[in-house]
Task: inverse folding
């Protein structure tokens, strides 16, 4: 069982489908022991929701893990969330499977009503949410030891050299360009098919 080596601390705009009910239970009971090795079994890196809500616990449990904080300006982050996570709820099929219900409930409780305090406030008070986003990023910078943290600002150039040097991993040798994926439009285009696939998987299971 390999431990986590890399933790992505950039605040989320998407969801997780791995044991959502266990993550939610861990979030509601911060003093209760969690088998992190089981939750992240077969993975050496973790990003996004719900991982970002357990940063302080994970960096203690995995003392050799390195942390990458990807950040952007608060305006573009807020716009991205409003154009991706919120529409996700609109493409859920009628009478969704329990699997999808658990996932959306986890995202609501941990991300919107947890990390961001209030789902409705997120929609109705954008300036408050943008301030919380900036405060979260600063908290990561203040909390994570400098030798374990790499901050990547999307307003600056991000290169293989920056990341590979930090992770002490070899750089690609075939001239592969640095990937730029999961744009707002690509996620919006993929949402209906993602939901269909998840529903089909649950039906077959």
Result:
């Amino acid at each position: 069982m390999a431990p986590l080596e890399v933790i992505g601390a950039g605040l989320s705009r998407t969801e997780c489908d791995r044991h959502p009910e266990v993550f939610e239970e861990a979030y509601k009971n911060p003093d209760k022991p969690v088998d992190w090795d089981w939750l992240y079994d077969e993975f050496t890196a973790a990003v996004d929701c719900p991982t970002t809500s357990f940063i302080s616990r994970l960096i203690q449990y995995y003392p050799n893990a390195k942390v990458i904080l990807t950040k952007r300006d608060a305006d573009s982050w807020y716009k991205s969330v409003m154009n991706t996570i919120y529409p996700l709820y609109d493409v859920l099929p009628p009478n969704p499977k329990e699997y999808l219900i658990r996932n959306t409930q986890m995202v609501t409780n941990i991300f919107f009503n947890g990390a961001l305090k209030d789902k409705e406030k997120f929609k109705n008070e954008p300036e408050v949410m943008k301030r919380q986003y900036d405060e979260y990023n600063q908290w990561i910078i203040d909390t994570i030891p400098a030798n374990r943290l790499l901050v990547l600002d999307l307003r600056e150039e991000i290169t293989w050299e920056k990341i590979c040097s930090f992770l002490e991993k070899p750089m690609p040798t075939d001239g592969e360009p640095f990937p730029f994926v999961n744009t707002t439009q690509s996620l919006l285009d993929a949402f209906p098919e993602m939901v269909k696939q998840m529903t089909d998987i649950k039906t077959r299971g």
